[in-house]
Design brief:
The chain is of the alpha+beta class. It has twelve helices and twelve strands. It has a five-stranded antiparallel β-sheet with strand order 8-7-6-5-9, with helices on both faces. Strands 1, 2, 3 and 4 form a four-stranded mixed β-sheet that branches.
């Protein structure tokens, strides 16, 4: 601290010494002392020289000289003013600090009565490098202007404060009024903030009007729309996503927890924010879709109706009865706990294949309780087991060839070389039984028939980085008790 203070004192001493040396040198270089030079007036203080200075109806040269000399000396703006008049021609001499003073003296002599011409030889003194008078005058004028504008500034700040509080009250009031009329959170926030901004702009307009800046106020009011248009063009995609989020929050095509398919992506809706729609896909990944793409795409909502129909194809042999296969398959569907009786299941003949008669089996399940994947696996397994139990074949054209009329075989009796057997042993065929399968509705490999929504919800909780923004959807199945739908 002592070292810095010493440096400061040395710097001050150097500045003072330089000022003293400059004043000494400047005083020696001038013909008269610096103290004899009168102060220079401001440019604003120089009023126009009179058009004509009347001395007498008929002015003599000495009278003109005396009159001009007395005026120049009375102002105190000139150093050693010298005036000489010869036959109406005025010769001005001396020194002036500024060019404006030199011109003023010439105009004064030119407008004096009886002057025919003016020879202005007044010398303009060079400005001193250490002359801060102009700067101090500028600071003094600035300070006076600040003091003069201070009351208006205080009034403007007070008005802006009042309108800021009024805008805040307007935002809360409009939001409360719209709470029962508009369901979309984003639209309510946009309208309430817009009303608050209008109130604040009104306050700014009033402040500019009372400040005398009416044109600027009109420019601001008129330019607000142009600025909005320019921003909309520059940030077209961002603006599109923002507007799409407003429309989606108004229309509510889905809610939090709904299973949807958007632009080929299937998953559970986790969040709708001002930019994206967040989905938890069935493979456990978090996908963010731009709201503009969501609004333009076809949205399939599998949760709006929890019941969903599924189907699969199974082929039977041409020698099997179609009605018998339909009865067996329908019995399996009717006895399955996850298959709905209303709407009723169907077993329909689809077409005649190259080696099989194809049956398409339709069934409905409640997706809010069961998984489509697991129920489909269980139904296919049980129908196959029932067909095998009832002797209904399920041939495959890739590994089986059918001869409708059989294959004729001719046996030729040969003379045995050794002793013949007493009696021939008939050839018997042993039927190959179907592999034993469990009759349970759900196996350990299928992991039960319940929905996998709980598991996916846990995965979504672990990936909370994409869910930090405000959710614009109203229903939250985790907190509201709403069940998710499994695909």
């Amino acid at each position: 601290m002592g070292r810095h203070r010493t440096r400061f004192h040395l710097a001050v001493f150097a500045v003072v010494a330089a000022l003293l040396v400059h004043h000494v040198v400047h005083a020696q270089s001038q013909a008269i002392p610096e103290a004899a030079v009168p102060p220079s007036p401001d440019a604003e203080d120089l009023s126009p020289a009179p058009e004509q200075v009347t001395v007498q109806p008929v002015a003599r040269d000495d009278e003109i000289r005396q009159r001009i000399t007395s005026v120049l000396s009375a102002t105190g703006w000139f150093v050693d003013p010298q005036v000489r008049v010869d036959d109406g021609v005025v010769f001005l001499g001396g020194r002036a600090k500024t060019e404006e003073l030199r011109q003023w003296a010439g105009d004064l002599a030119r407008n004096t009565q009886g002057v025919a011409a003016v020879a202005n030889t007044i010398e303009v003194l060079p400005p001193s490098a250490w002359d801060f008078s102009a700067g101090w005058r500028g600071l003094r004028r600035l300070w006076q202007e600040i003091l003069g504008a201070l009351p208006m500034f205080v009034l403007g700040v007070f008005i802006l404060g009042v309108f800021t509080v009024a805008g805040w009250i307007t935002v809360r009031g409009v939001r409360r009024v719209l709470a029962t009329r508009i369901r979309a959170k984003l639209l309510r926030g946009l309208l309430s903030r817009g009303a608050g901004i209008l109130v604040l702009l009104l306050g700014v307009y009033i402040v500019l009007r009372i400040s005398g800046l009416t044109q600027l106020a009109l420019t601001i009011v008129g330019g607000t729309g142009l600025v909005g248009l320019a921003v909309g063009i520059a940030f077209r995609e961002i603006t599109e996503n923002y507007l799409a989020s407003i429309f989606l929050s108004m229309q509510q095509p889905f809610k939090t927890g709904d299973l949807v398919e958007i632009a080929g992506v299937t998953g559970y809706v986790r969040q709708l924010n001002v930019r994206t729609t967040v989905l938890m896909t069935l493979d456990g990944s978090v996908t963010q879709l731009p709201n503009g793409l969501v609004y333009r795409s076809t949205i399939r909502n599998f949760t709006t109706n929890p019941n969903r129909r599924d189907d699969f194809i199974i082929g039977i042999g041409y020698d099997d009865r179609i009605d018998e296969a339909q009865r067996v398959a329908l019995a399996v569907l009717s006895g399955h706990p996850a298959v709905l009786d209303d709407p009723e299941p169907w077993v329909l003949a689809e077409d005649l294949g190259r080696a099989t008669v194809n049956l398409r089996i339709y069934f409905w399940i409640n997706g809010a309780q069961h998984s489509f994947f697991k129920v489909r696996s269980s139904v296919i397994r049980l129908v196959k087991r029932a067909f095998q139990a009832h002797g209904i074949s399920m041939p495959d054209e890739a590994r089986e060839v059918i001869f409708p009329r059989g294959v004729p075989v001719t046996l030729h009796e040969a003379t045995p070389l050794g002793p013949s057997p007493a009696s021939p042993q008939p050839h018997t065929t042993t039927a190959v039984s179907a592999p034993d399968e469990t009759e349970e509705v759900s196996t350990e490999a299928e992991g039960g028939l319940s929905s996998e929504a709980t598991m996916l919800d846990e995965q979504a909780r672990q990936s909370s980085s994409a869910l930090e923004k405000e959710n614009l959807l109203q229903d939250d199945p985790i907190r509201g008790g709403r069940s998710w739908v499994a695909h």
